């Protein structure tokens, strides 16, 4: 058995391969970030953080008598809340934000898209 096959198994696991590629791209991006931007104080994006927190809470089904509530009414309420979050999110303008905040913005957009 070769070293590569012992690490990757007999067939390359696509998820493991994708994870490695993302890690390498992230390292390449971090290496390319200008040092002045890296030393800046963290930006204050409470609006984006609040949307993210509300979005995460939407992922959890409401529990009624110890059972997750997936009734039609509960799903419709979740859809309304998701639509309201989308409106608030779409009102944000990340065009002048530092790169790290734009990355956070894109991650929150991805979360919204997954639930939508």
Walk me through the structure.
A hairpin with a 2-residue loop joins strand 1 and strand 2 (67-68). It contains six helices and two strands. The radius of gyration is 20 Å and the shape is flat. 69% of the residues lie in helices and 3% in strands. By secondary structure, the chain is mainly alpha-helical. The longest helix has 19 residues, at 14-32. Helix 4 packs antiparallel against helix 5 (72-90) and helix 4 packs parallel to helix 6. The mean pLDDT is 79. It has a two-stranded antiparallel ribbon.
Q: What characteristic shape results from the CA principal axes?
A: flat
What is the mean predicted local confidence, pLDDT?
79
Helix content: 55-70%
Number of helix segments? 6
- Count of folded domains: 2
Strand content: under 5%
H/E element string? HHHHEEHH
Low-confidence parts, pLDDT < 50 over ≥5 residues?
none
Report the radius of gyration as a whole number of Å.
Answer: 20 Å
Number of strands: 2
Specify the biggest β-sheet: 2 strands, antiparallel
Class from secondary-structure proportions: mainly alpha
How far is it from the N-terminal to the C-terminal residue, by CA? 46 Å
**How would you write the strand order of the largest sheet?**
1-2
Could you provide a short overview of the structure?
With 116 residues, this protein is mostly helical. The protein has 2 domains: 1-32, no CATH class; 41-115.
